[in-house]
Amino acid sequence: MFIPSILLKQLYNRGSLTNLGNGVRFSLKNRLKDAQVKEVLEIRIDKQVVPSNKISLQLADGQKLSLGEFNEQSNHEFPLRSTLFVFIENCQPLPKEKHEIQISFKVSPFGTLKFEVEDVVTDEKAPSNKIPRDELDDYGEEIIKKRQQYFEQFSGGKINHVGQYSIDPHTLQGNIEHFIGVAQVPIGIAGPFRILGEHAQGEFMVPMATTEGTLVASYNRGMKLLNMSGGVKSTVVDDAMQRAPVFVFEDARGARDFVEWIKLNMEQIRSEAEATSSVARLTYIDHFLSNKFAFLRFNFKTGDAAGQNMVGRATFAACGWILDHYQGIKNFYLESNFATDKKASQINIMRTRGKRVTAEVTIKREHLLQVMRVDPRQIDYHGRVAGVGSFLSGVNNTGLHSPNGITAMFIATGQDVANVSESSAGILYSELTEDGDLYLSLTIPSLIVASYGGGTGIGTQKECLELMGCYGRDKVMKFAEIVGAVALAGEISLASAISSSDWVSSHEQYGRNR
Predict the structure, then answer these.
(1) Catalytic site residues?
(2) Can you tell me the distance from the alpha carbon of 243 to that of 239, in angstroms, rounded to the nearest whole number?
(3) What are the start-end ranges of the E strands in 371-504?
(4) Distance CA 89, CA 57 (A)
(5) To 5 degrees, how large is the angle CA 14–CA 26–CA 128?
(6) Cβ neighbours for 284, distance < 8 A, ≥ 6 positions apart
(7) Which spans in 449-502 are helix H?
């Protein structure tokens, strides 16, 4: 199995080369996928072969074996994200400078792997005043208690509520480091809410986690109104997740010629990227040239995961193949800031990041008057006035507060809340029908959500997704349709409150102004 050299080098933990009292230690971390180490063939430091009788290895379970024992037993489990420590014993300390390390070993299912890296040696330091950790089990109750006590001693305070949780900390590996407890955010429910989606069909109760008074009540009021009109039609119209590397060349012609080569080799690049995942699908690559730089914006479909890590790994593998097969590249960075991860941007509004969702409804005039005490003409006129304010301010959302509902649902369901940066973009449109009713539509061009992976499988977060029937495989489109519909309910509720001057009085009754 071909693995690009740039990806192979990532197996080495940079900064791990350490002088011990009687030898040297460095470590490898599996960043590929679950594997088995069958045999370590050779280790060299500064091109000198290290005698096999001086080498020992420590496995993920803490067991330490000589190289002979290690190779004799063979088939050692090397799970994804686990670490393998290599000890070179009974040798002189290495000078404190840069050293070249070469290692070759047999690994299933990859075959024989060989790579070389450079690292600067450091001395093992005496324990300092740092956060307690356990290399073998950093999510056990004992080490969690030690961290809590460390935090209390450092701050002079006391952990009470933070340390009370119902989840198994061991399920959090890959979600958080230095775990000490949980943040408890109140959850309210809004609904029932009728949604007419392609994936979300029927009535839903929506969990919303927030500490902002009136928010849940406002969304509930919007849902009540939209139910009277038969519900909200919600549609996912596009799906894409990006990673955007940049390649540096001698001049602009070099960058231009490189992009032409990329186009000709698209199928091989797609094959290398998709080999890293059973889910990721590379749909297309955007090309942007500036100065002597070639920006490539890789666009993937990522199934039920939000997919940033997935596409990062897939793009890295593809770029590794590119670097091994194209001459003339002077420099390379996996991310150029052109994917605009965790940032609002115009390109995501235009090109989609995550799910592009449109929710729409036609609201009867009598229903608006009955529930909201406002006429459709007031809402429509208010929207046009607010459009001028949107233009003047340069905001990325022509609506009122769709990020409010999106954030509350993100917290409740274990989404990456920083993705609200992209997901905050919204395009609100309204028009009056010939009957005097109000057509209202909201497009969220970069809604980044997941129904599987990341934080969606943790305790309360998984539970909230399950209560909507949105946890697990083949459920992300359903969840995206619900989020889009909920955001629209919040827009009509707040727009009506402002247009009818109920906004301040509502906060006086339910919210923070009490």
Answers:
(1) 212, 416, 507
(2) 14
(3) 427-432, 438-447
(4) 11
(5) 80
(6) 299
(7) 459-467, 476-499
Beta strands in 82-171 (DSSP E): 83-89, 98-108, 111-120, 122-123
Instruction: Mark residue 46 as left, alpha or beta (left: phi above 0; alpha: psi -120 to 50; beta: remaining).
Output: left
Rounded to an integer, what distance in angstroms lies between the CA atom of residue 236 and that of residue 447? 10
- The dihedral built from the CA positions of residue 488, 492, 493 and 495, taken in this order, carries a sign that is positive
Q: Give me the residues paired with residue 58 across strands.
A: 64, 85
Which phi and psi angles does 305 have, rounded to 5°? Answer: -95, 155
Percent of the chain topping pLDDT 90: 84
Token pair 């194209």: residue: 326
What are the structure tokens assigned to 179, written together? 């775990």
pLDDT digits (tens, 9 = 90+) for 455-480: 999 999 999 999 999 999 999 999 99
How far is the CA of 509 from the CAs of 214, 502, 512, in angstroms? 9, 11, 9
> Measuring CA to CA, which residue among 95, 84, 4, 5 is closest to residue 45?
95
pLDDT digits (tens, 9 = 90+) for 422-442: 999 999 999 999 999 999 999
List the structure tokens of 129.
Answer: 């005043």
d(CA 66, CA 509): 72
CA 275 to chain centre: 20
End-to-end CA distance of the chain: 65
Task: Enumerate the β-bridge partners of residue 445.
Answer: none
Pull the structure tokens for residue 346. Answer: 């115009």
> How many Å apart are CA 333 and CA 244, to the nearest integer?
9
The pLDDT of 405-421, averaged and rounded, is 98
What's the alpha-carbon Rg for the chain, to the nearest Å? 28
pLDDT given for residue 492 in this prediction? 97
- The DSSP letter of residue 279 is S
Per-residue pLDDT at 216: 98
450 token code pair: 């997941």
Residue 18, classed as helix, strand or coil, is: strand
Cβ atoms of residues 426 and 397 within 8 Å: yes
Quote the CA–CA distance of 421 and 488 in Å, as a whole number.
Answer: 18
Instruction: Identify the burial level of 326 via C-beta atoms within 10 angstroms of its C-beta, where 0-12 means exposed, 13-18 middle and 19 or more buried.
Output: middle
